[in-house]
Design a protein that fits this description.
- With 253 residues, the protein is of the alpha/beta class.
- The protein has a single domain, classed as 3-Layer(aba) Sandwich (Rossmann fold), CATH 3.40.50.300.
- 32% of the residues lie in helices and 24% in strands.
- The chain has 8 helices and 10 strands.
- Strands 6-7-8-3-9-10 form a 6-stranded mixed β-sheet, sandwiched between helices. It has a 4-stranded antiparallel β-sheet with strand order 2-1-4-5, covered by helices on one side.
- The protein is globular, with a radius of gyration of 18 Å.
- Bound molecules: adenosine-5'-triphosphate and magnesium ion.
- Magnesium ion binds next to helix 2.
Length: 253
Amino acid sequence: MGLLAVRQRATDKNRSGPLFLAPRLSNGFFSMLEVQGVFKSYATPQGPLPVLQGVDLCLKPGSSLALMGESGSGKSTLLHLIAGLDKVDRGSIRSGEHRLEQMSEGQLANWRRTEIGLVFQQFNLIGSLRVEDNLAFQARLAGRHDPRWQAHLVQRLGLADVLKRYPEQLSGGQQQRVALGRALASQPKLLLADEPTGSLDEATSAEVLKLLLELLDDSPTTLLMVTHSPSVAARLAEKVVLHGGRLAGVDGR
Ligand SMILES: Nc1ncnc2c1ncn2[C@@H]1O[C@H](COP(=O)(O)OP(=O)(O)OP(=O)(O)O)[C@@H](O)[C@H]1O
Ligand SMILES: [Mg+2]
């Protein structure tokens, strides 16, 4: 899919209805992601724990954003909400033409399958599938399995020698690369990565990150990545910090 397909002009869309109330940027393009006034608390034995208290965020297609903030500040919570894995208490999350709070579980599952790539710190690889089938898994579900793109990813990620192995037969760094490859293979519009290199040593982490950014250069995917590393954050186009339930320190370049 070309960049233009993602950066569809709002005027191309004549559909109406709640799912198609897409936010429009001043340049006439849809924003990839728009989070507005989002609140989220968790119920705990001590009462409600407020985590997000009015989060606003707007991401343009093809951009990359580092989400930082101290442990427990709510970064993973925000990513789960954006992925539609949990519901906001208040506020709205829109991605392109979709309004998440108005979608059914089935619509959310379908949207995640076709438009979102998820890479969490735990690699979540499927133990019963060989590497090659793990890589193709989401792309097949999304109906976008492209053997040439997958072969390109395999070559770039250095996975050619382990394609027939099972995840448990891989090192942590190799598993991490398979998880990234799986998310990228499906050519998602939005890649949500929660500390994707957090459990790797510094050198491997730098190598995996470099690869990720290079591969994103070849695709129209928008990246939202949680990281604790200032040097990782510095390599992304923008940076925000979650503190006290809100985002601050926007550093657009
Ligand atoms: N299911 C849950 N029930 C109750 N509290 C939760 C739940 N999930 C997270 N929390 C709490 O919400 C707060 C935010 O958690 P979250 O995982 O979003 O933080 P984080 O910024 O991702 O932290 P880290 O950098 O350590 O991964 C924490 O205080 C956490 O204990
Ligand atoms: Mg977290």
